[in-house]
Design goal:
This protein is an all-alpha fold and 194 residues long. It has two domains: 102 residues, RNA polymerase sigma factor, region 2, helix turn helix motif (Rna Polymerase Sigma Factor, Chain: A), CATH 1.10.1740; 81 residues, Arc Repressor Mutant, subunit A (Orthogonal Bundle). Helices cover 71% and strands 0% of the residues. Keywords: Sigma factor, Transcription, Transcription regulation.
């Protein structure tokens, strides 16, 4: 999946900030083609983050992506350029994915931690030398939802524990504990020594 988004990632990262503000203004004025450009510019990177947060479940990631862009469409007139458009969209997407995780928390029995071993055993094991991104992505999918969310937000997206705690409605200490748990489960799944 990551290989197919690399050109789109570069395009989003190389976006001219003045072009972005012109696109935002045009979209606010009702230009749907401008909004489509915004979508195509930012959706691939955002989808990759949401896919990880949703445990590799494409349908859930797509739902969160669509929800984020629907929220963005409604809120775009109030966008003040205090941050980059990409950062703002990223936050909307992560919030949509986290809402999805919260809504399904009761259904996700894996969050209790009781099924960790069963989930890990269900995924085919990999040769330690393989060490590919695919191995890591598959192992990441096996993590309990809250532990996965904390790991993705902290280690991949660079969020601070207080930001994660606020978004996931948990104590900062719980965020740190979930990160420790997630890293340990990943090491075990990838055959790394504890």
């Amino acid at each position: 999946m990551l290989d197919t988004t690399m050109p789109a990632l570069r395009a989003a990262n190389d976006a001219d900030p003045t072009d972005e503000s012109a696109l935002v203004r045009a979209a606010v004025a009702g230009d749907t083609a401008a909004y489509e450009r915004i979508y195509h510019r930012h959706a691939p990177r955002l989808y990759a983050v949401l896919w990880r947060l949703c445990g590799g479940q494409a349908a859930r990631a797509e739902d969160a992506l669509q929800e984020a862009f629907l929220q963005a469409w409604r809120a775009l007139p109030g966008f003040r350029f205090d941050s980059s458009l990409g950062t703002w969209l990223h936050r909307l997407g992560v919030n949509a994915a986290l809402m999805e995780l919260r809504a399904n928390a009761a259904r996700d029995a894996a969050d209790s931690g009781e099924d960790d071993g069963a989930m890990l055993a269900a995924v085919p094991s990999f040769d330690r030398c393989a060490g590919t991104t695919l191995d890591l992505e598959r192992a990441l999918e096996t993590l309990p939802p809250r532990a996965r969310a904390v790991l993705v937000l902290h280690d991949i997206e660079g969020w601070k524990h207080h930001e994660i705690a606020e978004q996931l409605q948990m104590a900062v200490g719980s965020s740190k504990a979930q990160l420790h748990r997630a890293r340990g489960l990943l090491r075990a799944r990838l055959g790394e020594p504890a």
